Amino acid sequence: MSDLHVIIAGAGLGGLALAQGLRRTGISVAVHEKDPTPGFRSQGYRIRINPDGITALKAVLTPRAYEVFTATAATPGPRMDTFDHRLNLLHAQELPSLPDLPGGGNLATNRMTLRQILLSGLDEAVRYGTRLTHYDVSRSGSVTAHFADGTSATGDVLIGADGVNSAVRKQYLPQARVIDAGLRLLYGKVPLADDEARSMVPPELLGLWTTIVGPERRFVGLAPVQYREPMTRVTARLAPDIALSEDGDYLACVLGARREQLPCTDDELFAMDSDQLRALTRSMVADWHPRLVEIVSRQDPASIFPVTVRTSVPIAVRESTAVTLLGDAVHVMSPAIGVGANTALRDARVLTARLAQAAGGRPLTEALRAYEEEMTGYGFDAVRDSADRGHRLVGQDPLPSLQV
């Protein structure tokens, strides 16, 4: 076991992946999460896992946990097509297939399932109900994180993996900007519980991700999650110590529009109950192709929740200290190219390797600087690419110029 002790603020996918990687490397780690329980709030449904994400998960998870991940992930193929609201094909896209990776490098996983896999074995490392408020760096270089409940924790490194509203980022990079991208999304899921429900969805809409663009750039995104075997069978066969919630096949359904196109204010939108949210989603596609209207109408109303799309403005990271950032805390992006979670997982893989070098004798600030240079390169490239496609396809606000 290394003498290095790492504090992670935030138990999202990126923070947990980092904790898994550090644990495998023999580095002491403690994760502090503001939510009172792991399932306290909905954080979305289906996630596309691309080659970067798959490679990262293979690096940070134990072999058994990685097997559970691949066995519970759906393999919908490489198609990412775009249609108009009458179901006329606008653009056909087939992503490259990598035969050395499961699913050819194109997987779809349920967010909660992946989260439960990433939590496996971390019971003693994760502390819930501890919201970081600020931190101090001592003259010796150690970092003390302070939490809203009056407690604190001291370590050699503090990682801000605390999401888009990161308290670590606000102190570490106070000049960094996160802006409203002008879009509002309504996330939901359509249960695919039987043959009748499955037959409702045309096969051409069951690719890895399908975008339907309607009038005024209103849009619907569809993506299936269809399991190959029940969760309990997977864990019984591969890892009985990993507890997964059972889940049924479903179609992730995301509706989006410019904020000014919605018939309500943000305050009204975020105060709506489930029936009101479903009525709103129906109204957004009322004159679209009948199949699309039926799909949207079949959403489970309890599954629908609204989201404000926000994006980071790329920024040059200052001189490194014993504090750094990961995932949405540093490079939150619109979902236009579907790589936000994958970029956070990549962060976890890269940072694990750099901290392992520090544990082996490389100066800590030098190791963290190497991570930040690499991470801000691919991370802010993803922010720019997401903003560019979102602007062209669905009217996302243009990204402001680079900050220095």
TrEMBL record:
Alphabetically ordered keywords of this record: FAD, Flavoprotein, Monooxygenase, Oxidoreductase
Alphabetized InterPro entries for the sequence: FAD-bd, FAD/NAD-bd_sf
Top-level taxonomic group: Bacteria
Keyword Disulfide bond: no
Organism encoding this protein: Kitasatospora cinereorecta
Protein name, per record: FAD-dependent oxidoreductase
Database matches in Pfam families: FAD_binding_3, NAD_binding_8
Domain FAD-binding, chain residue ranges per copy: 299-379
Signal sequence bounds: none
